Amino acid sequence: MRLSGVVLVVLVIGHLLIQLVLDGGVSKIGFAFVAGRWASPFWQVWDLLMLWLAMLHGTNGLRTVINDYAERPNTRLWLKGLLYTATVFTILLGTLVIFTFDPNIR
């Protein structure tokens, strides 16, 4: 998780610099901006890595919190089951959106 944290920091700082500094700020971000950006495989992979690493890193942290604070085994089982279900759902849906995004939809 340390390596993923370092890679995630680099990806997020790069993302923020590009979105907020180099491309004119938040006011420039819209459907056309995202469509242009995701037309490039480079940005698809960048955003995909950011999604996967953030979700896995956050899931591992929340799993640790559940293990530390959920006292009953049954509660721990249900909380981790919900966590893993939400993680898989979010990763699959996010990956699907990144790779099937159609800029021609209006």
TrEMBL record:
<protein>
    <recommendedName>
        <fullName>Succinate dehydrogenase</fullName>
    </recommendedName>
</protein>
<keyword id="KW-0812">Transmembrane</keyword>
<dbReference type="GO" id="GO:0016020">
    <property type="term" value="C:membrane"/>
</dbReference>
<keyword id="KW-0472">Membrane</keyword>
<dbReference type="InterPro" id="IPR000701">
    <property type="entry name" value="SuccDH_FuR_B_TM-su"/>
</dbReference>
<feature type="transmembrane region" description="Helical">
    <location>
        <begin position="42"/>
        <end position="62"/>
    </location>
</feature>
<keyword id="KW-1133">Transmembrane helix</keyword>
<dbReference type="Pfam" id="PF01127">
    <property type="entry name" value="Sdh_cyt"/>
</dbReference>
<keyword id="KW-0479">Metal-binding</keyword>
<dbReference type="InterPro" id="IPR034804">
    <property type="entry name" value="SQR/QFR_C/D"/>
</dbReference>
<dbReference type="GO" id="GO:0046872">
    <property type="term" value="F:metal ion binding"/>
</dbReference>
<keyword id="KW-0408">Iron</keyword>
<feature type="transmembrane region" description="Helical">
    <location>
        <begin position="82"/>
        <end position="101"/>
    </location>
</feature>
<keyword id="KW-0349">Heme</keyword>
